[in-house]
Design brief:
The chain contains 15 helices and 11 strands. It has 470 residues and is of the alpha/beta class. The two termini are 31 Å apart. The chain binds glutamine (GLN). The site of glutamine has 13 residues, from loops.
Length: 470
């Protein structure tokens, strides 16, 4: 019996290397849990029928001496990351029947390492949401409390790891979609520096914000995956060349806290827990300083202008003609567009396309889009400036613990507020990590997030690992 609960990449690697169990045994152990739990949790949309064959191929690497740390490691992949020959539906009816015709760059890298893809995980429709309730395939449940949401949009990836249905997972983040589900499920979630991980083969939501990254049980696993997938990729024009990545080494001492951002809307449990985390950091020898981030309080407003603008542009390719859902009852071209998009996209997606189209329309883009771009620049500048005096910035990851299934579904603005602490990192491109920080009295996971300067992921891993031990 493999103890999946406490398994990490390094432990699994040791066991695979020593022959304690095989890659097939490991994959089978996860498939057994999936068989038992997935129907209820709904973490996966599809389990790949070649998972065991992939495991056998990985085993050959152990036999011929080419195995690496990720060889044979069972991964859950979010349904918006392309794997050649597998479906990738973006959590959407529109792409329900779409089969990827090429590998995303991260897929290619992981295949080379011999990682095993177990299946594709549930997500909010087109990655829009904070709860995995807008998915065309029904909601995912939080394994920590099945009456609650796992967070979103990478909720399936988080639930898969939390329920031992995969050792690790990849998700994507446009604004919190890795960190928030990680927080709700008691896991570690990384949002890398923009440009660190290739977006090639990730179905785009907001190109200037999107990043692929890991959801794991501990910081070390996230670090190992990040170090493997963070490679320059000429196929992504925003991928940063290796020599331009100023990798700042750790040794952080000063942590800035923008207390003024927590004045409203933060759950008392979250705030108390955050204060306790700050005390722990103080006792561990860190200098804690109060910092002001006056523009960051507009992050959410800015995000909900820039993101829908990019969404409306990105989703225009889904027109019922080129690929994806095409409504057969349309009688003319305009109807093909209208019916295919109207039926293929869910309500939240349509809302954002409408908003984005409005924001970019001739009479309004100056007032909304251009203003938002300017404030985004101010937010980036103020974070860069803050990092002249502090090594890290800490906030709670999400303003509340996991909420009940069904909650906030009829109140989009309440749902958008879940992104309040996520937005600054996505808008400015700095990296951020969410690390478990305890639980509420009823056992719901809570989380702290740290932000660091561009390409200072090493600092995040260092503080994250330290925080795990204090
Ligand atoms: N909560 C964010 C939103 O609804 C999540 C987006 C994302 O990171 N994919 O836009």
């Amino acid at each position: 019996m493999i103890d999946l609960k406490t398994l990490t990449i390094e432990k699994a690697h040791q066991a695979l290397k020593s022959g304690e169990y095989s890659c097939r045994d490991l994959a089978q152990a996860y498939l057994d849990v999936i068989k038992e739990k997935n129907q209820d949790i709904n973490a996966y949309i599809e389990i790949f029928d070649d998972a065991l064959l992939q495991a056998d191929k990985a085993q050959e690497k152990f036999t011929n001496g080419t195995a690496t740390l990720l060889t044979g490691i069972p991964f859950a992949m979010k349904d918006n990351i392309l794997i050649e020959g597998k479906k990738a539906s973006n959590g959407s009816k529109y792409l329900e029947k779409y089969t990827a015709v090429y590998d995303s760059t991260v897929t290619k890298i992981l295949k080379k390492e011999g990682a095993v893809f177990i299946g594709r995980t549930n997500m909010d429709d087109a990655a829009m949401g904070s709860s995995t309730q807008t998915s065309y395939y029904g909601p995912t449940k939080n394994p920590c409390d099945t009456e609650r949401v796992p967070g979103g949009s990478s909720g399936g990836s988080a639930a898969a790891v939390a329920a031992d249905m995969a050792l690790v997972a990849l998700g994507s983040e446009t604004c919190g979609s890795i960190r928030e589900p990680a927080a709700f499920c008691g896991l570690v979630g990384l949002k890398p520096t923009y440009g660190a991980v290739s977006r090639h083969g990730l179905i785009a939501m907001g190109n200037s914000l999107d990043q692929i990254a890991p959801i794991t049980k501990n910081v070390r696993d996230a670090e190992l995956i990040f170090e493997t997938i963070a490679q320059y990729d000429p196929a992504d024009s925003t991928s940063r060349p290796q020599e331009k990545r100023v990798i700042k080494k750790g040794n952080a001492k000063r942590i800035g806290i923008p207390w003024h951002l927590f004045e409203e809307g933060v759950d008392p449990f979250v705030l108390d827990n955050f204060k306790q985390s700050v005390e722990k950091l103080k006792s561990a020898g860190y200098d804690i300083v109060d910092i002001g981030l006056p523009f960051s309080k507009y992050s959410l407003a800015v995000y909900y202008i820039i993101m829908p603008a990019e969404v409306s542009t990105n989703l225009s390719r889904f027109d019922g003609i080129r690929y994806g859902y095409s409504d057969q009852n349309a009688t003319n071209l305009l109807e093909v567009y209208k019916r295919s998009r109207g039926i293929g996209f869910g309500k939240e997606v349509r809302r954002r396309v409408l908003l984005g189209t409005y924001i970019l329309s001739h009479g309004y883009y100056d007032a909304y889009y251009n203003k938002a771009i300017q404030v985004r620049e101010k937010i980036t500048q103020e974070l860069t400036k803050a990092f002249e005096t502090v090594d890290l910035i800490a906030t709670p990851t999400a303003p509340t613990p996991a909420f009940k299934l069904g909650e906030k579904m009829n109140d989009p603005v309440a749902m958008y507020l879940m992104d309040i602490f996520s937005a600054p990192a996505n808008l400015s491109g700095v990296p951020s990590i969410a690390v478990p920080s305890g639980t509420t009295a009823t056992g719901l996971p809570l989380s702290i997030q740290f932000m660091a300067p561009h390409f200072a992921e090493a600092t995040l891993f260092e503080i994250g690992k330290k925080f795990e031990t204090i």
